[in-house]
Design goal:
single chain; mainly alpha; 252 residues
C-alpha cells in the first residue's frame, strides 16, 4: 500500500477541497458531542460535596482553558512551518486559528470569573494563572492586529509568525503557574502520572466536552481557512474555476 503524500496538501488548490470535505464532518461531530456533554454536565454528573452545583461550570471552563493553550501551540507550529518551508497554507492556517483561540481564551477567562466569584469572593484577582491567561488573550489579539496592519500578505505572515513563536513562551508559564507560584487557582485535576481528582463520570463528561470543543475548533478553522485561501488566491486560475471569474474579490 502506497503511503499518503502529505506534502501535496501544502498547496492551496489541494488543501481547499480537503478542508471542504472535513469541515462539515467535524461540525456534525461537534454538535453531537456537545449535546451529550451538556446533558451529562447538568443531569448526570453528581453534585460536588465542596462546591455544590456551581462546580458544573468546570465542564466548560476547563476545556476552554485547555483549548486556549493548545490552539496557540498549534498556531505557533503552523507559523514555524510557514517560516521554515515557505508554505502558503501554513501561514493561512495560523491566521485561521487565531480568532478561535482568542474566543476560547475569552471563554476561559469569563467562565473562570463566574466560577471564581462564589469560590473566591471576587470576579478577578491578579493571580499568576489568571494574569498569564489574560496575556495569552492579548497575544491572540496582537497576532491578528499585526497581520491586519500590514498590507503585504507575505510580510504580514512573517511578522505575525515571529510574534506567535515569541509568545509561545507564555504557554508553559500558564500551565506551571500553579506550581511555580503561590496562587488561588486550584491545581490540575488531570495530570500525567497521577490519578484524576474526580469521579469517573466527571472525567468522562470533561473529556467529551473537550472533544466537542476540539471538533468545533477544527470545523470552524477549516471553514475559515477556505475563506482565507479564496481571498489570498483570488487572482489565480484555480480560484476562478471554483468560484467563477466574476465572484473573486477581497483583500490581497
Amino acid at each position: 500500500m502506497s503511503s499518503i503524500n502529505w506534502f501535496k496538501y501544502a498547496s492551496p488548490p489541494t488543501f481547499y477541497p480537503l478542508a471542504g470535505r472535513l469541515a462539515p464532518l467535524f461540525g456534525v461531530l461537534a454538535v453531537v458531542l456537545m449535546v451529550v456533554g451538556l446533558y451529562l454536565s447538568f443531569f448526570v454528573a453528581p453534585t460536588d460535596y465542596k462546591q455544590g452545583e456551581g462546580y458544573r461550570i468546570m465542564f466548560i471552563h476547563v476545556p476552554a482553558a485547555w483549548m486556549s493553550m493548545f490552539i496557540y501551540l498549534v498556531m505557533a507550529m503552523w507559523a514555524a512551518i510557514g517560516l521554515a518551508f515557505k508554505t502558503r497554507v501554513s501561514a493561512m492556517m495560523s491566521q485561521a486559528l487565531a480568532p478561535t483561540g482568542a474566543m476560547f481564551t475569552f471563554l476561559a477567562l469569563w467562565t473562570g470569573a463566574l466560577w471564581g466569584k462564589p469560590m473566591w469572593g471576587a470576579w478577578w484577582v491578579w493571580d499568576a494563572r489568571l494574569t498569564s491567561e489574560l496575556i495569552l488573550l492579548f497575544l491572540y489579539f496582537g497576532f491578528m492586529a499585526l497581520h491586519a496592519s500590514i498590507d503585504d500578505p507575505r510580510r504580514a505572515d512573517k511578522a505575525s509568525a515571529l510574534l506567535a513563536l515569541v509568545g509561545a513562551v507564555n504557554i508553559p508559564i500558564i500551565y506551571y503557574s500553579v506550581q511555580w507560584w503561590n496562587t488561588l487557582h486550584q491545581g490540575a485535576s488531570i495530570s500525567p502520572g497521577a490519578a484524576p481528582s474526580m469521579t469517573s463520570i466527571m472525567l468522562t463528561t470533561l473529556l467529551i466536552m473537550t472533544a466537542a470543543c476540539w471538533s468545533y475548533a477544527i470545523a470552524v478553522v477549516l471553514s475559515r481557512v477556505r475563506s482565507i485561501i479564496l481571498e489570498r488566491e483570488r487572482n489565480t486560475d484555480w480560484v476562478a474555476s471554483v468560484v467563477g471569474p466574476d465572484n473573486r474579490g477581497g483583500r490581497g
